[in-house]
């Protein structure tokens, strides 16, 4: 199939392009910063012209403003990229008969639920990033019926800065690191997510799906396993969210249920510690030793 990826120079975008091309698809990899295939998703005329020229079967939108804390001060820009642009894209796709897959986030939820979040649970974002991403979901659903929205969380991968890479870097510089232990989610490897996105597209899926690696963790659990698997002696100290203030509030629990994905595809993603080992192994193979 002919596929077009936006935000293809980002952490997920890089692995997704590799996964789709490896699966025999013809992939156009675009990004606002790409010299060869520049596409700024906030420019509706450019989006239309690009889709008219490329005529892909699917657009997979990985482009986003993902700096969660920066979104607090730049909510207008975040809303333009994460909220309005997916709406234009959906309108053009609906007009040209192109399917749209859009990546969204666990941060559309407020984190007050005790168990895992299902796709139909009520959304109620508690920070600017979550509000902008929810706006993107709503804008798409208003403009097309056969959209695919994939909510994911806590990503790590070779193609960009992420929590695991930050812990490895800090572990080189410090003997102990304070990490929050009272926020829970599912750490997810972008390579596993990319495979799952390919499966959903090849299955012609539609609707909202939660996709993440299996198993629940706190940031503290993830940091502990990272230093353990990397063979480092750095001490990880558990601290509360209250003692680690950040500009953007984070949901206390944003564990996503992937039952709908498994029912639709028959696939299970690996448990997160196995995914983490895979990521650390690929960093060694690639010779990556710090925050990318
Ligand atoms: N990272 C996570 O933990 C996480 C968790 C949940 C959901 N998600 C979602 O997963 C998706 C991929 O995330 P990621 O971590 O791979 O993000 P990322 O590494 O920040 O990649 C996003 C890419 O989009 C590009 N971009 C920004 N504005 C653009 C525009 N106007 N037009 C075209 N490209 C633009 C970025 O370029 P610049 O870098 O030059 O700005 C970057 O290359 C996003 O939808 C994100 O919201 C991520």
Written description of the protein model:
- With about 290 residues, the chain is α/β, with parallel strands linked by helices.
- The chain has a single domain, classed as Rossmann fold (3-Layer(aba) Sandwich), CATH 3.40.50.
- Helices cover about 40% and strands about 15% of the residues.
- The chain is built from 10 helices and 12 strands.
- The protein has helices spanning about 10-20, 45-55, 70-75, 75-95, 130-145, 165-175, 190-200, 220-230, 260-265, 270-285, and strands at about 1-5, 25-30, 60, 100-105, 150, 155, 175-180, 185, 190, 205-210, 215-220, 235-240.
- The chain has a 6-stranded parallel beta sheet with strand order 2-1-3-4-5-10, sandwiched between helices.
- Helix 1 links the parallel strand 1 (about 1-5) and strand 2.
- Helix 1 crosses helix 7, helix 2 packs parallel to helix 4 (about 75-95) and helix 8 packs across helix 10.
- The structure holds NADP nicotinamide-adenine-dinucleotide phosphate.
- NADP nicotinamide-adenine-dinucleotide phosphate (NAP) binds near residues 10, 32 and 153.
């Amino acid at each position: 199939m002919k596929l077009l990826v936006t935000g293809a120079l980002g952490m997920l975008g890089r692995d997704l392009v590799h996964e789709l091309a490896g699966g025999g698809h013809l992939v156009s990899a675009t990004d606002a910063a790409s010299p060869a295939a520049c596409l700024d998703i906030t420019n509706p005329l450019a989006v239309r012209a690009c889709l008219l020229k490329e005529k892909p079967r699917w657009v997979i939108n990985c482009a986003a403003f993902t700096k969660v804390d920066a979104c607090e001060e730049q909510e207008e820009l975040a809303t333009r990229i994460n909220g309005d642009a997916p709406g234009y894209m959906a309108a053009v796709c609906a007009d040209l008969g192109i399917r749209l897959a859009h990546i969204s986030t666990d941060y559309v939820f407020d984190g007050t639920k005790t168990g895992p979040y299902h796709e139909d649970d009520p959304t109620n974002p508690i920070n600017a990033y979550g509000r902008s991403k929810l706006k993107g979901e709503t804008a798409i659903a208003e403009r097309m019926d056969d959209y695919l929205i994939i909510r994911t969380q806590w990503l790590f991968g070779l193609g960009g800065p992420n929590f695991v890479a930050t812990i490895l870097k800090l572990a080189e510089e410090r003997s102990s690191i304070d990490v929050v232990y009272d926020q829970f989610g599912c750490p997810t490897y972008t390579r596993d997510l990319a495979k799952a996105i390919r499966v959903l597209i090849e299955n012609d899926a539609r609707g909202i799906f939660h996709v993440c690696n299996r198993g629940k963790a706190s940031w503290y659990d993830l940091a502990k396993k990272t230093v353990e698997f990397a063979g480092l002696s750095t001490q990880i100290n558990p601290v509360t969210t209250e003692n680690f203030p950040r500009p953007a509030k984070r949901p206390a629990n944003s564990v996503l249920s992937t039952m709908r994905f498994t029912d639709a595809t028959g696939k299970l993603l690996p448990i997160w510690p196995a995914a983490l080992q895979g990521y650390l192994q690929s960093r060694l193979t690639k010779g990556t030793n710090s925050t990318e």
